[in-house]
Amino acid sequence: MAVVLLGGLPAQAEDAAVVQTCELLKGIDLDGRLHHFAATPDCRAVAVVFLATQCPISNGVIPELKTLSTRYKPKGVEFYGAISDPAVNRAEAVKHRQEYHINFPVVFDGSLNLRRKLKPTHTPQVVVLSPAGEVLYSGRIDDRYSAVNRKREVATQHDLEDALKAIVAGKPVGVPRTQPVGCLLEDPPEAAATGSVVFNRDIAPLMLSSCAECHRPGEAAPFSLLTYADVSAHANQIAAVTNSRVMPPWHPFEGYGHFRDERRLKDDELALIQRWVADGKPEGDPRDRPAPRRFHHGWRLGQPDLILKMSEPFELSADGPDVHQHFVLPTNIKNNRLVSAVEFRPGNPRIVHHASFYIDNSGAARKLDEQDPSVGYGSFPGPGFENYCSFRSWLPGMSPQRLPRGTGTPVPAHSDVVLEIHYQRNGKVETDQSTVGIFFAESSAREVVMELQVMNKDLNIPPNEPRHRHVSSYTLPVTATLLDAAPHMHMLGREMKATAILPGGAVKPLVWIKDWNFNWQGQYLYVDPIRLPRGTKIEVEAWYDNSTGNPLNPHSPPQLVQWGEQTRDEMSICHFRYKCDSMEELLAMNSDYLAYATGQQAIIAKRPAKPPVK
Q1: What per-residue confidence (pLDDT) applies to 34?
Q2: What residues contact residue 48 under an 8 Å CB cut-off, 6+ apart?
Q3: Which residues pair with 339 in a beta bridge?
Q4: Of 1, 159, 406, 443, which has fewest CB within 10 angstroms of its CB?
Q5: 308: exposed, middle or buried (C-beta count within 10 Å: 0-12, 13-18, 19+)?
Q6: Under a CB-based contact definition with an 8 Å cutoff, are residues 244 and 237 in contact?
Q7: Three-state secondary structure along 406-472?
Q8: 475-478 CB contacts, 8 Å cutoff, 24+ apart
Q9: Residues 6 or more apart whose Cβ sits within 8 Å of residue 297
Q10: Among residues 584, 495, 508, which one has the least CA distance to residue 539?
Q11: The predicted structure's pLDDT at residue 13
Q12: What per-residue confidence (pLDDT) applies to 197?
């Protein structure tokens, strides 16, 4: 395995249709060996893949690139990686190559000459050249990502391999250009110390307040944003993902519900970022730099009353679809308790996307674990048993919150906490052994918090329907106070809106997700709990895109999709945690909800078989 340093390259033709004879592209690796592109007589093509050390999309395709390199090398295709990032030094590039066990030469394009010649815009992006220098293909590796925050479980189009198959067969490439999806390539920072918008005065406070909770060492984000060097190295990408509101990840529509810990940049803040990048990313006066932010490095809510840890590490392979794995954590508590809060500490933030928590007092989860030879057990996207109650989920950047004083979620004696973790592969083998901290409510707490799921399992989404509307509802039999909301759909989901219709006809907004993203599901705690009188109807509207225009559609061609547990199925649930004014009302609510949930399950039992796919 060689790391290549690119030598001097001739100037590029303006249209980039022909770069030059590939044999003139040469470089010396870190072991002192000279490499000429397309130097072997049987070379049919050269594939140059632009990579980044800190881009998760780029790192995620490395296993596929390694496979393609091995597969097509005997067929006359040379693979070269290229690191063309002014913020990355040669030693960091070598370390990255070693960590990901890259089996093809990696060009360290410190002078950006190769980048100027081939004109990539993103990482990962591949440019395939003929030995004569003609660009045969340029674009993405496959369609695993339709956008930076839109990931399908498994790629359905393999653009690079399709191009290579055609080339080695002596045929024209069917689709010679595709749009790459990943991290924007960055430019060197401007040396100017002044400007209308500068980092130390204007941008640093935004990064520290809105981004650094995740983007710092040891947390889930792929790179840190604590310093000027950090931020300027990713400035183009930051400008793009903030302007599109992909980041910070916050999906509730503004003004439709008021939630704690909102992570939303205002329009004027977005404009500051855009202007700073356009001005060349000036650093500004060091005296304007804000004081370093202090972060919690231990348990944020203090020492937990009970600490539960996965019994052994779970190993995640380098490549493949996302994994949802369940781990049984026995509580060994001898009495029924009320839980005020749960705090999750990922063992490996690089691969833990989010976590959910369930309570099992039946022993069913232990049996599922015994039947699965791996660490924990599968069963996505539900836990595989009737959940007694829920603690809600954890997502990167979330601050753990205690329930209001005097309240708690019930945990029966001798029950198990079942931890569901959504793992995302990052291109190399990783392990995780995460921990859950349990905080019991004070001994005087008497108010019980339970969960309501508003749903309608009579769900039938026709094929080729780009905006199918589905309605669910539940009418409160007693007065109840909602503490939070957590919408849930799968890959066809596009929008969900929950509304409370009071007995007199007045409407109260609960939550509205206008741009549903399966990979960024969340739960949203109300700043002020919402008290709803008896007879209030909670209505949930959901919209789905079951057309070929939905790049995440798991079916090709589209087919009838109904309610089900798997990602190729669909759901429409809005979860709410609630409390009642008295135990009598809570029991009445639970009894009514049990009948509601039983009726929903009966819909599935009576559902006719799906018609065959035409």
Answers
A1: 53
A2: 80, 81, 82, 107, 114, 118, 126, 127, 128, 129
A3: 409, 440
A4: 443
A5: buried
A6: no
A7: CEEEEECCCCEEEEEEEECCCCCCEEECCEEEEEECCCCCCEECEEEEEECCCCEECCCEEEEEEEE
A8: 475/535, 475/536, 475/537, 475/538, 476/532, 476/533, 476/534, 476/535, 476/536, 476/537, 476/538, 476/589, 477/534, 477/588, 477/589, 477/592, 478/534, 478/580, 478/581, 478/585, 478/586, 478/588, 478/589
A9: none
A10: 508
A11: 33
A12: 87
Residue 475: CB partners within 8 Å, gap ≥ 6? 535, 536, 537, 538
- CB-hemisphere CA count at 13 Å for 170? 0
Please tell me the distance from the alpha carbon of residue 509 to that of residue 538, in angstroms, as a whole number: 10
**Other C-beta atoms lying within 10 Å of the C-beta of residue 8:** 9
Q: What Å distances lie between residue 48 and 37, 45, 59, 109, 139, CA to CA?
A: 10, 10, 15, 12, 11
Number of Cβ within 10 Å of residue 32's Cβ equals 6
Burial class (CB in 10 A: 0-12, 13-18, 19+), 325: buried
Tell me how far apart the alpha carbons of residues 22 and 260 are, in angstroms, rounded to a whole number. Answer: 57
- How far apart CA 222 and CA 352 sit, in angstroms, is 12
Distance in angstroms (rounded) separating the CA atoms of residues 260 and 393: 15
Tokens linked to 606: 């009576």
Start-to-end C-alpha separation, the chain: 49
537, HSE (Cβ side, Cα atoms, 13 Å) = 12
Query: What Cα–Cα distance (Å) separates residue 582 from each residue in 407, 579, 585, 586, 591?
Result: 12, 9, 5, 6, 14
**188-217 CB burial, b ≥16 within 10 A, e <16:** ebeeeeebebbbbbbbbbbbbebbbbbbbe
Q: What is the mean pLDDT of each run of 10 residues along the chain (614 residues)?
A: 34 42 52 61 90 94 96 94 85 90 86 83 95 92 90 90 96 96 84 69 85 84 91 93 89 89 84 91 84 78 94 94 92 93 91 88 92 86 74 74 87 93 91 96 90 94 97 97 93 96 96 90 86 98 96 92 87 94 93 91 75 49
For residues 577 and 483, is the Cβ–Cβ distance under 8 A? yes
- State phi, psi for 584 to the nearest 5 degrees: -60, -45
> What type of residue is 217?
P
Instruction: Extract the runs of DSSP E, i.e. beta strands, from 489-571.
Output: 493-501, 507-513, 524-532, 537-546, 561-562
Q: How does strand 145-147 pair with strand 135-139?
A: unpaired
Tell me the C-alpha distance between 185 and 57, whole Å: 13
140: left (phi over 0), alpha (psi -120 to 50) or beta: beta
Nearest one of 473, 502, 463, 494 to 576, comparing CA atoms: 473
Query: How is residue 319 written in tokens?
Result: 């490549």
Q: What is the DSSP letter of 134?
A: B
Residue entry with tokens 């308790």: 337
Residue 24 is classified by DSSP as G
Contact call for residues 154 and 321 (beta carbons, < 8 A): yes
The pTM score is: 0.72
The dihedral formed by the CA atoms of 422, 427, 428 and 433, expressed in degrees to the nearest 10: -10
Greatest CA separation for the chain? 85
